[in-house]
Amino acid sequence: MIYLDYTANTPADPEVLDAYLAAERRYIANPNSTHIAGQEARAEMERVTQSIAQRLGVQPAEIIYTSGASEANNLALKGIAHASRHIGKHIISTQLEHSSVGASLSALQQQGYEIDLLDIGRDGRVDLDQLRELMRDDTILVAVCAVDSELGTIQPIREIAGIVKPYPGCRLHVDATQAVGKTDLWLDGVDTMSFTAHKFYGPNGIGALYKRRGLVIEPQISGGASTTIYRSGTPTLGLAVSLDAALTKALAGQDARNARVQRLHDRLLAGLQQYSLVRVNSPAHAVPHIVNVSVTGVKGTRFQQALSEQGVCVSVKSACSSDGLPSKAVFAVSRDRRNALSSWRISISHLTTDAEIDGFLQAFDTCYKTLTNKEN
């Protein structure tokens, strides 16, 4: 099997799993308990939170643990919207967002909030001039991903933060799920930022929301205070430890890992560009980990299934939104509905080998000739 769907999920690093198991064996008490075992667990939780905060350049009190990025996005969007409704009900986002953002915005729209979605340029980036035009005194939230999961486009967060800054009642939420370990994170002017461990070689089930100190959001889960008043539930110490371990490795090894991925990306692209019906949809300003392509005249789902039969794992759109509809992101950059329907995504990793790239290209060649009746 050749796994090229690292954007959907990454395998947990063995050292990260070891850290998780060690914590689960060592700390058996609830960190909220007041007895000595609980105090020990609490001290470890505080140490881990301090470490995560230090990696991000923020304060420990600004870290809220969640079950993943979907929960973090829900907490940020709904929490900000509900806490800011006395200021206004206008929200700005994009068509590139994860389904957890899109569904949260739809839910807010049903509650009377006004949602505007920014246009996407041919370069895959949001229209900054349109953002300036849409900003109003009653705009309470701008939500945008740092890196979109379908094309890999790196969004201009610094510039977006600069546009939002003059509006004191507006908050900026950044979904950094696909950015951690792939590109530098920009937090200046960012009010909330979501991320999840399973995208950077940690386990599933643990993520976090950075919430700027002093920002008030409305909790979405009722219950005990846990490690924060903003998210109830017993802290999962082992998962927090594994999040810290994965984040530490991802940030420390980012440059070396990215250099390897870039080399594999270039080799992959060189092979794909030999075929006349292949169209590369990922723009130039994108992380090298994600390559979105279309084969003219062949639906993306059909090509994905053909590759799967050859033992190659790629994806059509996001794994969380594979609904058979054209990719909004690909349509935005190509303005071609058929091309969007034909698109599918390859996502590679520093774990990907040259042999796997060669194996993919061989499988691709077989599928291409079968599905297009062309040699190249």
From TrEMBL:
It comes from Gemmiger formicilis. This is Cysteine desulfurase. Signal peptide: none annotated. One of its GO terms (molecular function) is cysteine desulfurase activity. Keywords: Iron, Iron-sulfur, Metal-binding, Pyridoxal phosphate, Transferase. Belongs to the class-V pyridoxal-phosphate-dependent aminotransferase family. NifS/IscS subfamily. The lineage of its organism: Bacteria, Bacillati, Bacillota, Clostridia, Eubacteriales. It catalyses: (sulfur carrier)-H + L-cysteine = (sulfur carrier)-SH + L-alanine. Its cofactor is pyridoxal 5'-phosphate. It comes from the Bacteria. Residues 2-359 form the Aminotransferase class V domain. The keyword Iron applies.
